[in-house]
Design brief:
The structure holds two protein chains of two kinds. By secondary structure, chain A is of the alpha+beta class. Chain A contains six helices and nine strands; from the N terminus they run αββαβαβαβαββββα. Chain A folds into two domains: about 30 residues; about 170 residues, Glutaredoxin (3-Layer(aba) Sandwich), CATH 3.40.30. Chain A starts with a helix and ends with a helix. By secondary structure, chain B is mainly β. In chain B, strands 1, 2, 3, 4, 5, 6, 7, 8, 9 and 10 form a ten-stranded mixed β-sheet that branches. In chain B, a hairpin with a 4-residue loop joins β9 and β10.
């Protein structure tokens, strides 16, 4: 066997092994990568800052541990994007009802308008879309810190007389059971897309 | 004007809606055609009782030969109705009032979630949780188009 023939044979064998390996991996149900969500290579721990849920209970890393959580930054004086996103999330949550309870994601909307969105007001708004969804009130002075960790942004803009609207990141964020920001779902969002990617991410973590 | 129209159309085309699904209860075509503008698929989002505002969506098709310009809207059930557009740039959603919306001849402009919408504010007696909401589109040439928009949630 000449040296060149040997190299050629080795290449053919390597390619065949690779194809066979990929085929077996696919047959064995190798974890799929998410299609839309961007998984962070270094998950970022959610900081403990003064925050409460809509019932006035403390909300922070302790409450995020042990389950997946989808986080959305929004506000209740928001007629278009926020209710549309909450509606999509309700659809996604409905598609995940077959998962064991500990794998079903919690869904929270952290208000970027803490001045107008009291916990009580959030409680009257967010659960309308799904009874288990929660609104989170973070004190205004700590909002920059928590949004920075998520990689979210918000800004206030005048809208009409003595009113304002809030520009805000419309991406969705996935917090893992270790209370770390683990993935980002960029816009646009669909219920089916979110549900499918969430299943893939949960599988990857197993 | 022509350039503005083109720019607006380009802007609208760039608005990727988060959820373009039709409402759960299909909206009958309820517009009374005025001139060459046809209204279809009108609906208003069902929102929690605590909401201070909601949004109306519809499709406008210009079957005529001249551009149609919508400069405003009103409703007997709301003291303030404005045309707004949400634009999402680099993941950041920005909502701004629009002075007008131009529908070029032969074109359809969609008011849909994540894009253009009629912002319905200052409800006279609370935002209806069901039923139908009468809307009136105001055109630059003075025409009015009456629209009946059922309240619903988009099917997903």
């Amino acid at each position: 066997m000449t040296r060149n023939t040997f190299i050629a044979a080795a290449i053919v064998l390597a390619v065949a092994a690779g194809v066979a390996g990929a085929w077996f991996a696919a047959r064995l149900g190798a974890p799929e990568l998410p299609e839309q969500a961007r998984v962070l290579t270094t998950p970022r721990p959610v900081p403990a800052v003064p925050a409460t849920d809509q019932a006035g209970r403390p909300f922070g890393p302790e409450q995020l541990r042990g389950h997946w959580t989808i986080v959305f930054f929004g506000f209740t004086h928001c007629p278009d994007i926020c209710p549309a996103t909450l509606q999509v999330l309700a659809g996604a949550r409905g598609m995940l009802e077959d998962l064991p309870p500990e794998q079903r994601p919690a869904v929270v909307m952290i208000s970027v308008d803490p001045g107008r969105d009291t916990p009580q007001r959030l409680g009257e708004y967010v659960p309308f879309f799904h009874p288990e969804f929660q609104g989170i009130h973070v004190d205004a002075q700590y909002l920059p810190e928590i949004t920075r960790v998520f990689g979210a942004a918000y800004a206030y803009s005048p809208a009409g007389e003595d009113s304002y609207t809030v520009d805000h990141t419309a991406s969705l964020f996935l917090v893992d059971p270790q209370a770390r920001v683990a993935a980002v779902f960029p816009t646009p969002h669909t219920a089916a897309g979110i549900a499918a990617d969430l299943r893939r991410i949960i599988k990857l973590e197993e | 004007m022509r350039l503005t129209t083109l720019a607006l159309v380009a802007l609208l085309a760039a608005c990727a809606p988060d959820d373009a699904a039709p409402p759960a209860s299909p909206a009958p075509v309820a517009g009374v055609p005025a001139g060459a503008l046809e209204v279809s698929a009108a609906w208003v989002r069902q929102v929690p009782p605590a909401a201070r505002m909601t949004a109306g969506y519809l499709q406008l098709r210009n079957t005529g030969t001249e551009p149609a310009v919508v400069v405003g809207a009103e409703s007997p059930l709301f003291n303030a109705v404005e045309i707004h557009g949400t634009v999402t740039v680099d993941g950041m959603a920005r909502m701004r009032q629009q002075e007008s919306v131009t529908i070029p001849p032969g074109e359809t402009v969609s008011f849909e979630p994540g894009g253009l919408h009629l912002m319905l504010m200052q409800a006279v007696e609370g935002i209806p949780a069901e039923g139908e909401i009468p809307l009136r589109l105001i055109l630059a040439d003075g025409d009015r188009i009456e629209v009946i928009a059922p309240v619903g949630r988009p099917a997903d």
